[in-house]
């Protein structure tokens, strides 16, 4: 039986969005809820997703029986971890069709409207993927400790480390390094205590400070250039050495662009649509059966 309705789910680490459409793409409902990271908290994430899907049906005045006529694609944070993805794919459900992807994969499909292309998300963390029209090829997304190069969290960590070195006169102190240390009352001991509890988002709060000083401070400029090199390495891979377009997303996407090599800047394009649209396209087209590259 051909599906009568389509649901796209964009589940991130902060919020989850669900859109319900009919066969011609008319939006019937859209709902927003909390976090949906299936690696960090599987049960909570899936509960959030299913509750939002029920809410979407309710807002569209559709009975619960309509689920058997609905094609559903979940794009979820944490689905780059294959064990978590398999668990989500096996989750009990009664949909017409049901597929699980990562949130970066649906963002890629939305950005290029199913055509070959890539996305690199550089916010607190970093993760990228390119779609070759048959398979997804993913990089990153493994967390700040072992991954997330070119990210706001890594840039913030580097900035704090440098500021501490300057505070100890291992490097020259500048207004930039002093501004960083002022957050800890210029006390390495306070910094130590804070760092033991700091999250990636906590480290990432210092990334805007680095960009703010990059044109006038040699330390900040060196940090930005290092971040640009890390991002360039990922972009070289994602664009197949400049053969396909890439969309940059996340908080660092706009400020880092001018620091990238001009050859890579020329390959950066604005996303055509968002991740929810990508999920909807996967739910309603033959590419929904595509498999991730191993």
UniProtKB/TrEMBL annotation:
Q: What is this protein called?
A: BadF/BadG/BcrA/BcrD ATPase family protein
By its UniProt entry, which InterPro entries does this protein fall under?
ATPase_BadF, ATPase_NBD, Euk-type_GlcNAc_Kinase
- Annotated ranges, domain ATPase BadF/BadG/BcrA/BcrD type: 7-260
Organism the protein comes from:
Celerinatantimonas yamalensis
PANTHER family per the record?
N-ACETYL-D-GLUCOSAMINE KINASE
The cross-references to Pfam families, in alphabetical order and at most eight, read: BcrAD_BadFG
């Amino acid at each position: 039986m051909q599906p009568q309705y389509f649901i796209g789910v964009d589940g991130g680490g902060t919020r989850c969005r669900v859109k319900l459409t009919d066969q011609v793409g008319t939006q019937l409902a859209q709902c927003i809820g909390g976090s949906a990271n299936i690696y960090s908290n599987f049960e909570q994430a899936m509960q959030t997703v299913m509750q939002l899907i029920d809410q979407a049906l309710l807002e569209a005045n559709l009975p619960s029986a309509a689920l058997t006529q609905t094609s559903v694609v979940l794009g979820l944070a944490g689905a780059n971890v294959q064990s978590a993805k398999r668990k989500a794919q096996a989750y009990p459900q009664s949909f017409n069709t049901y597929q699980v992807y990562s949130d970066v994969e649906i963002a890629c499909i939305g950005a290029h409207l199913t055509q070959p292309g890539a996305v690199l998300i550089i916010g607190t963390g970093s993760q990228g993927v390119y779609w070759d029209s048959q398979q997804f090829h993913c990089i990153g997304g493994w967390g700040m400790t072992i991954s997330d190069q070119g990210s706001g969290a890594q840039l913030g960590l580097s900035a704090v480390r440098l500021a501490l070195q300057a505070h100890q006169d291992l490097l020259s102190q500048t207004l930039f390094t002093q501004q960083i240390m002022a957050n800890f009352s210029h006390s390495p001991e306070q910094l130590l205590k804070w760092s033991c509890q700091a999250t990636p988002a906590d480290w990432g709060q210092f990334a805007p400070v680095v960009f703010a000083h990059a044109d006038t401070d040699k330390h900040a400029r060196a940090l930005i250039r290092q971040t640009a090199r890390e991002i360039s390495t990922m972009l070289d891979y994602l664009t197949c050495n400049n053969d396909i377009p890439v969309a940059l997303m996340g908080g660092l996407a706009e400020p880092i662009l001018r620091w990238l090599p001009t050859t890579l800047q020329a390959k950066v394009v604005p996303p055509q649509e968002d991740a929810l649209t990508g999920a909807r396209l996967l739910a309603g087209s033959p590419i929904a059966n595509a498999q991730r590259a191993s």
